[in-house]
Amino acid sequence: MRPIMKKIEEGFFKALMLACTAAVFVCLALILGTIIVKGAGSVNLDMLTKTPRGGYYLGKGGGVLNAIVGSFMLSIAATAAALAMSLPLVLYINVYSKHSRLASFVRMSLDILWGVPSIVYGAFGFTVMMLFGMKTSLLGGIAVVSILILPIMARGMDAVVALVPDELLDASYSLGATRFETAFKVVVRQALPGMVSAALIAFGRGIGDAASVIFTAGFSDRIPASLFEPAATLPLAIFYQLGTPFPEVQNRAYASAFILTLLILSVSITARILTYKFKKT
Amino acid sequence: MNMARTRVLKDIIASGTMRFVAVACAALAVLMALGLLLKAWPVLKIKPIYDILFSRSWSPMKGDFGLFSFIMGTLWVTGIALVIAVPISLLTSVYLSEYAPRALKEYSKPLIDLLAGIPSVIYGLWGVVMIVPLVRDLLAPACGSSSSGFSVLTAGIVLSIMILPVIIHISIEVLQSIPSELREASLALGAGRWETVKYVVIRKARPGIVAANVLGLSRAFGETMAVLMVAGNVVKIPVSPFDPGYPLPALIANNYGEMLSIPLYDSALLLAALVLFVVVICFSAASRYILHRLRVRESV
């Protein structure tokens, strides 16, 4: 009797596990399917090439070019700023000050920052901006998003740079190179694909985040002409368009979601291919 | 000689700069905590923290900033998300790590990471399109109650799907970090595969799996956009899963723009942000500490 019970128990749990795994993948398929089915049909050239006209949110003509351009400006600048912070940081804790207490303290702080919700970044960023008398602007958005993606980028880079073997550093030192030269000419070259992939993942996170930019970059129907003008972003465009009661405008929200998803998927797949290549070599 | 000196000088300057950048970035977390505390101070000075956290009366015009309804909204939403996500993620990660054929294992990992990379506003949109009607037309009537569809249950379902990839990713790493000798020893003693999983693998992996779930919990706690879009946002303590709720992050996102016209409003909202910050940091620090000790790479 008991072996039979065992068999039944194992069979039951195996079926349950299979069902759960299937459910997870079905959810992924449902999300992508919904976005594609609802969005792809509503995408047209106007969506991609025009900014909102008067009465756009009531169903009149125009597109989300303002949000597409705004998102790119904001995330590219934020990624560059985050890179300018994480590159020295990562090289410092992996070349200059390897295995030190400072290095583990920096890693721990980055992990903590990683967990902070983006709305808290947004609220904090807005407060700091008010302190300096700044209004919602592209610059404010860039500053907050760069800090939001800093831990993602820095920890991602840290993970690949830490894999560079110590022997390589020793070989470089024994040839008379300084630590600075070793860091930028040997370590960076060795870990480059992985570092690019970390930067891409961070870019993807930055372009998809809405809660951090809602009060810092604000929203605008025009493409920002300077750093001090508010800028629209795709996630917020989706949010606002979906919030209107008009089906035509909601369809545009689906179309914008389709554009954003396509963007993020291509970034994330590129990052994955780079990681794969890095692991192979 | 001169060239060597410039090289060394360069090295020293770079070292100083890089050290400064590293320390400055590391100090950001502390800076943020201090900034939030500083801004939340005016409202804390007027009323003790206990009064604010556990008072239900929310009328900013009269200076009442009771956060209790919002805290309950957050607890309902995260609670439901966890009830759904914990068993599903456990069974999925055990399957993918212990039972699945090699090919499925290889292909499922990038797919799960893909799921983790989808922005929250997309999850929110999906929730509005799919889960809201599901709750309104199917689940609520089936339970003999009525709902607009914008409810804490809807938000919980959407959140659970958002945190599933995070929990599964880390749980698989934890399960795979368990030495195969342990499994072999158990199998050699005559235990079946399921018994090995049940009595050896899961028992050994328990701290790591708990840590993975706590990390997922902290993610759910601070999630804003998706929740804002489907939770209903009515200032009331939910009494059933089909009631609308108003979680803390949604409160901040909805009102941060208008707060400047009402005295102390900004201070109260930043107190809400501070509460989120402290809770999330405690949870994520605890789970990262456990994962670090287990030497599991936890970057998701």
What does this structure look like?
The complex is a heterodimer of chains A (281) and B (300). Chain A is mostly helical and 281 residues long. Helices cover 75% and strands 0% of the residues of chain A. Chain A has helices spanning 2-40, 45-49, 65-96, 101-115, 118-131, 138-161, 166-174, 179-208, 234-243, 247-280. In chain A, helix 3 (65-96) packs across helix 6 and helix 8 (179-208) packs antiparallel against helix 10 (247-280). Chain A starts with a helix and ends with a helix. The model of chain A has no long low-confidence stretch (mean pLDDT 89). By secondary structure, chain B is an all-alpha fold. Chain B folds into two domains: 2-40; 67-293, MetI-like (MetI-like fold). In chain B, strands 1-2 form a two-stranded antiparallel sheet. In chain B, strand 1 and strand 2 form a beta hairpin.
The CATH class of the largest domain in chain B is identified as Mainly Alpha
Cα end-to-end separation of chain A: 55 Å
Cα shape of chain A: globular
SSE order of chain B, one letter for each helix or strand: HHEEHHHHHHHHH
Main beta sheet of chain B:
2 strands, antiparallel
- Second rung of CATH, namely the architecture of the largest domain in chain B: Orthogonal Bundle
CATH fold group of the largest domain in chain B: MetI-like fold
CATH topology of the largest domain in chain A, anyone?
Answer: MetI-like fold
Main sheet strand line-up of chain B: 1-2
CATH architecture descriptor name of the largest domain in chain A: Orthogonal Bundle
